[in-house]
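catalase, pasting as requested.
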Amino acid sequence: MTDVASQGPAPGDDRPVLTNRQGHPVYDNQNQRTVGARGPATLENYQFIEKISHFDRERIPERVVHARGVTAYGYFESYGKWGDEPVGRHTRARLFQEAGKRTPVAVRFSTVIGGRDSSEAARDPRGFAVKFYTEDGNWDLVGNNLAVFFIRDAIKFPDVIHALKPDPVSHEQKPARIFDFMSQTPESMHMLVNLFSPRGIPADYRHMQGFGVNTYKWVNEAGDTVLVKYHWLPKLGVRSMTEEDAAAVQAGELGHATKDLYEAVRRGDHPEWELVVQMMSDDDHPELDFDPLDDTKVWPEQEFPPRPVGRMVLDRMPDNYFAENEQISFGTGVLVDGLDFSDDKMLIGRTFSYSDTQRYRVGPNYLQLPVNRAKHATVHTNQRDGLMAYEQDQHGQNPEVNYEPSITGGLREGTYPTHDEQGPEIRGRLTRKRIPRTNDYLQAGQRYCLLEDWERDDLVKNLTDLISQADRAVQERMVWHFLLVENDLGLRVGEGLGIGPKDVAHLEPLAGQDLTDEDRERL
Ligand code: HEM
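Structure tokens follow.
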């Protein structure tokens, strides 16, 4: 056999020479070093071992949720005001202050439950995570395409995800497991009415909304706070698929939404979303029939009108899937001055979880990677070393002082914000309790009534098909919930399952469940 190495470059071939990571030229990339042409191989074969052992480590763990996704880049442009009112009246966050101010962004769209190569036409919430590279450091707004979530306390997140993921014994995707969990989780009803309607399968990523879902705060120059919710509205409108549409799409292509985004952005068809914000004063709002910190609820638009604050355009796709999509890391703790957390019990749990998983999934120095670093702010920390440390922050004249305080140099603390202790004062006893005003059914029913006829038909069909695969006791409990959501929904799903209102009349409310007077009347 001809030895490729002996062939040398063809005349006029000026391509760079292949090397290993040590910079050594590779003279033969076809044959490993062996004793004689038929082997055995030798262990000091550095080039082969470097190549194969790097290959062995090519994959990092995929995200435990939202494994399949696509990243795109662009900018956010602030409007500076709504009507005559400057946005600065409510938040001092610099990115919102001036009309026309642009902040670069990276966005990652994703599905939640499937693995890294799963279908993008699955019925599943879609992730809508935005990283703003502001001059005050990064801000991540980590949202979904549906306005509410399944649960309201972070302690239940592993359970809801286990129920939605495949069976741990056979790895089969089983609706029986999903509805077993949901039947015991009444706060999931609002999400289920959304997820099993056509909204549960967006046509692609360009035609879907985004929602921050959790409640955050804004802080103004005076330190006054308001509660806010964020929503992204697509300029192209919302498009969804039925189960049949989705089956046809995924028969031909598992990654249709990624493909659609790459093709659109590359041909100059840059998708755009408007960011609107709902706002309410920073208190408990006893007048409302829900808690403003409950992420299974939406805020009625009549009372809390959406206020447009800017627009986002995506105009560039990544050059490297691994570096920019697999390693990009978002988290709800990543806020800038003028933006803050609320006490939403999901938000607090999420804020721990994201950076915890990223230190494990990407590594402790994940924030040094180009896609994650605060590239428009100055970064000076005393953090040192760790796995894959790539660079140390510049410390000016005294790089040896990597501690603080010091009288010989090093870094100093910043100036304290004028009003750091903002918001209402809170006192309470340590406890483990549901929030009051759970009101699990009312908004789910209102959502059902807002659906168009074809969407309602699709919802009923999807729920009936899947719940029919669950145990009879789960089926009955689901019909019981749906009758409380909206009579029509309960009757229709019940009809499909052969379960009438009389068959569920014996069921008591779940242990610890809070029902409203109206719920009780409907029982
Ligand atoms: C990704 C945890 C609720 C949106 C993730 C990841 C974790 C996680 C561990 C993987 C992150 C990574 O590997 O980089 C949680 C917990 C939740 C929760 C503990 C509840 C307590 C939510 C909610 C939303 C959401 C309510 C939507 C508002 C996302 C998105 C991603 C994600 C968009 C993907 C980010 C990306 O593209 O890299 N979540 N999550 N999560 N989560 Fe959550």
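Note for the archive: DSSP finds 14 helices and twelve strands in the chain.
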